[in-house]
Write a structure and sequence with these properties.
9 helices; about 375 residues; four-stranded antiparallel beta sheet
């Protein structure tokens, strides 16, 4: 202890009069970088960090070269995955369905998109991990927190440490890793750029309003239960009951005539699941005197109303009906819609009511659509948000 009452460590530096803080450095094990010791308490001379385990790449240049080639191969795999995504995007038509045993019918384009992007991410991730495990230093270093404003000498020390780390990572010496790793990270941004910029510029993504108004519903189609595919009579729908319904014929070939003033899906490659996703409807029966809106009552039949099942917030399926309050609840983000008042939003992040499907009955008493949806179904995209 000096005359000021502060302790002096083994290195001769003064330190505060604190029995738990010292100024001496502790080695982190054989092979540690000089100057990276840590200041620890006298009560804990060993911070518990494991000693450095010498690896083959540390002592054998051939092993280091082999590790370098392995890392480069993984980065090359990432590059090939990105290139494969781009090729699939520009050459394979959307909604091309293929049958694969054990998996059934798959959308070929989107399946390949997922596979190639997975390979791209996998190559970058595994390459970075293998690089860190075989070539980068693996010593753990602990140091005291320095003051917010560090002395010039300390800041220069940080710069020296970063330069030393860059040298130890061997990025300057391993030209193959630098080229392939940089290329893999660079080209990985291309799929996003192609989809967002190229897709919009070429009109490949289509117009959101047109696409989401273009559903399978049209005048005269009977309502069938999902998944039983059974036509529904008005007498089958009792007070408080809820049916998940689809348009009759949705599982058949989609070539049919559109309703007046509507476009219609004529793409023979369009999958059943995509048609179902846009056409799903909830059917329920209320007491006619419970309706607050005349439109909700007039577009229904004797208290039976039908609304799109797709939430206008993020597209989740609305499937929870509260019989006492006549509210429909989306389980994803708790958007709540009032069935008695045109399914307007009464709670949650949704901004638009659920679109209503106008229905009536045919001569046999079966419920049928009186028209298609009058507005787009699904989330409020930027082109029609309000």
């Amino acid at each position: 202890m000096n005359e000021n009452g502060s302790h002096t460590g083994e290195s001769g530096h003064e330190r505060p009069d604190n029995p738990h803080v010292t100024g001496h450095e502790v080695s982190l094990g054989e092979g540690h970088v000089p100057g990276t010791g840590v200041t620890v308490a006298d009560r804990f001379p060993n911070p518990g960090l494991p000693p450095h385990q010498v690896r083959h790449a540390d002592v054998d240049e051939r092993a280091a070269k082999r590790a370098e080639r392995q890392v480069a191969a993984l980065f090359t795999l990432s590059i090939l995955g990105t290139v494969g995504f781009l090729v699939a995007y520009f050459t394979i038509p959307m909604a091309t369905m293929v049958f694969i045993p054990w998996f059934g019918h798959l959308d070929l384009a989107h399946t390949l998109f997922g596979v190639f992007l997975g390979l791209s991410l996998l190559g970058i991730g595994l390459g970075a991990v293998h690089w860190a495990k075989t070539l980068m230093p693996d010593e753990e270093v602990v140091e005291e927190r320095h003051p917010i404003v560090s002395p010039v000498a300390d800041r220069q020390g940080v710069i020296d440490t970063m330069n030393r780390g860059a040298e130890q990572s061997q990025i300057g010496r391993r030209h193959l890793i630098k080229v392939t790793g940089g290329t893999a990270l660079g080209v990985f941004a291309l799929p996003l750029l192609v989809q967002v910029v190229g897709g919009l510029a070429n009109g490949k993504m289509g117009d959101a309003t047109t696409e989401l108004r273009n559903t399978f519903w049209r005048k005269g189609l009977r309502l069938i239960t999902d998944p039983e595919k059974r036509p529904i009579k008005a007498s089958d729908v009792t007070l408080g009951s809820v049916f998940h319904v689809l348009p009759e014929g949705i599982f058949d070939h989609p070539h049919q005539h559109p309703a007046h003033g509507q476009t219609f899906e004529h793409d023979e490659n369009l999958g059943v699941m995509e048609r179902k996703a846009k056409a799903a409807v909830l059917l329920m029966r209320l007491d006619p005197k419970d309706f607050k809106s005349s439109k909700a009552r007039d577009w229904g039949y004797q208290g039976i109303v039908a609304y799109s099942k797709i939430c206008t917030h993020a597209g989740c399926p609305v499937g929870l009906y509260e019989q006492q309050t006549h509210h429909l609840l989306c389980p994803c983000h708790q958007s709540t819609f009032d069935v008695t008042d045109d399914c307007k939003v009464v709670f949650g992040p949704a901004k638009r009511p659920l679109p209503q499907l106008k229905i009536t009955v045919d001569k046999d008493g079966y419920l049928v659509a009186d028209d298609g949806f009058a507005e787009p179904v699904g989330p409020s995209f930027w082109t029609r948000a309000r």
